[in-house]
Amino acid sequence: MAWNKKPLRRKDKQDALFAENARLEEERARGAIEDARAMTPDAQPEDELEVPKDTLGTVKRLWSAAKGERWRFGVVIAAILLYTGFHVAAPAYSAHVIDVLWANIQAAFAAGRTFTVTWDTGGQELAIYFGIWTGACALYSVQCFVMAGFAEKLNLSLRTSIAEKLNRLPLKFFDGHKPGEVVSRATNDLDKMSEVLQTGLLKLMSAVGTIIGALIMMCRYSLLLTGIFLVFALLSTLVTQYVSKQTLRLAAERQRYVGKLTATVEEAYSGRLIIKSFNREEASSAEVHELADKLATASRRADFVTNAISPLIRFIIRLAQVIIAMVAGGMLVGGQITIGVFQAFFHYIYQVSEPLTQLSFTINTLQNALASVERVFDILDEEEVEPDPAVEAAAHLPASVEGRVDFERVRFGYNLEKPLMRDVTFHVEPGQKIAIVGATGAGKTTLINLLMRFYEIGGGRIALDGVDTHELTRAALRQNFGMVLQDAWLFEGTIAENIAYGRPDATREEIVAAAKMAHVDHFVRTMPDGYDTRVENDAENISQGQRQLLTIARVILCDPKILILDEATSSVDTRTERDIVRAMETLMHGRTSFVIAHRLSTIVDADLILHMRAGTIIEQGTHEELLAENGPYAELYRSQFA
Ligand SMILES: Nc1ncnc2c1ncn2[C@@H]1O[C@H](COP(=O)(O)OP(=O)(O)OP(=O)(O)O)[C@@H](O)[C@H]1O
């Protein structure tokens, strides 16, 4: 079912058309809970451990998506190269500075002078050293700033592509994907990508450059010391690799519990009335407590591994430093290295070991982000609706549409293997009222879906005023229809804006006139700010019946040629129901109207009744004709009114 209709609970319970409502209600409730679960941002814990299916392909595609912004990436690379050069040069130059200072100090002591730093006795070297670090800092800021621009522009362009793509996706796509899933692609996945580009990729690139440069310098100073360091570095890398896998696994476990707990709390919140009415409060809060306990345990483990393990890695590096200090100390005493080189070597150890400890974690995060990007591309690759014909090639409806509708041998199925409609034919004259009846799942909504071209037919023809709807643009077709559904959709905005949704240029007078015709003006005036009252918090303060009246006003304002009404059968009071019926009658006057009828009593005056079963029209005619035929409709009618 394409529309999320509200459950039907009415006095005429015996109505055979709605025998399955309870089951439907249950199914819808279940669907809503599943949707809520999918809406939880962290509902896909397995994301944490995901790797891309095609790393190279995804990177290439991301690169082509960055067209127009690649220069920024070029600037980042140049800044990283220069930064790495400065960064690696600094310790080597510091060795020179210390050796110069040390030589000057010794010379001053030998001459019995007090040593002071002047431009010629080390000042010049100190100034250059300061300049190198200032340059490194400046280049670091440049790469962060430009990379942020690159990542956010890329994010924006992909997000825009998704937003445009969603408009071109067929409804079939939305039937098969939970809303939370799609929202998560456009928000979480893209945010993850830009965050990782800004931190992870940047870190990775400058880490690789620094590690290579520093190791070259270390080898130039001493192969022996570098060898000792590499043994320990290898050990710490293995530990890091193992730990980062554990961290991700534990983080995934934590996210799984966060997801479960959020869904359970949401479920308990939305079902609070039912929970209370069945006295299940204790059971409900026990479930929440149990999940909260599990979450606390999972969080404790994840935090321990994340926080307690890095001292272990540092310990391995410190051990390396102690051993290197002992060996290097011997070399210093033996005159194989200078004091400046001694301290510079330790600088390089720091420069290599810090990024090394983070390298495998950074690589995991990058892979994870690429997997997110892949999911974004998956949406962008989804099959789109058949494009509209070009405006000049499209057929045109007459300037004044009359509202004649023809279904000719229409065939359709939601999936190719399972045809639903095989041969649906009927003819509607302008201004007629057509009632569509049938048991739940008979295909009433589907008929409307096809008329509005929400789905494409598999065969046959649907015509409006004799023009094949397939040859029209969807916008040209749909502008002739007004729909009033049971699930009256209001958005966050004022009441006036909600009424004027289809005609944002409508004047206040027109809005009020429409509201009066819909019998909702009185109610609106009782609201705190009248027509300027904001509909917020899912319109909880507006009853189901009032919402429906507001949507009727919305359609009245658009003055469409053809109406589609899902008869009001929601749990509204008798007076509101009378208002709705009257408002609908006003609306139907002089227009072709399709009414999805839920009660046979309201359709006896219809010009044409389409009785549907299993996707097919099994009978059609006026009420009298169908009674005279004495078929299934007559039987149904007699079962209700006998
Ligand atoms: N989006 C969809 N994807 C796949 N199958 C669908 C979809 N919408 C409806 N169906 C199936 O098509 C058949 C007709 O459904 P439809 O919603 O048209 O019935 P209906 O007569 O409007 O029912 P109800 O009175 O309960 O609203 C049902 O078997 C339903 O399960």
From TrEMBL:
Annotated ABC transporter domain residues: 405-639
Its membrane topology: Multi-pass membrane protein
GO molecular function terms attached to this record: ABC-type oligopeptide transporter activity; ATP binding; ATP hydrolysis activity
Annotated TM spans: 71-93, 126-151, 200-218, 224-244, 322-350
Pfam families, per the entry: ABC_membrane, ABC_tran
Keyword Nucleotide-binding: yes
Keywords: ATP-binding, Membrane, Nucleotide-binding, Transmembrane, Transmembrane helix, Transport
GO CC annotation terms, alphabetical: plasma membrane
The UniProt record lists the keyword Magnesium: no
Span of domain ABC transmembrane type-1: 75-368
InterPro entries named in the record: AAA+_ATPase (IPR003593), ABC1_TM_dom (IPR011527), ABC1_TM_sf (IPR036640), ABC_transporter-like_ATP-bd (IPR003439), ABC_transporter-like_CS (IPR017871), P-loop_NTPase (IPR027417), Type_1_exporter (IPR039421)
Subcellular location: Cell membrane
SMART domains per record: AAA (SM00382)
Family: Belongs to the ABC transporter superfamily. Lipid exporter (TC 3.A.1.106) family.
Function: ABC transporter involved in fatty acid import. Transmembrane domains (TMD) form a pore in the membrane and the ATP-binding domain (NBD) is responsible for energy generation.
Name of protein: Fatty acid ABC transporter ATP-binding/permease protein
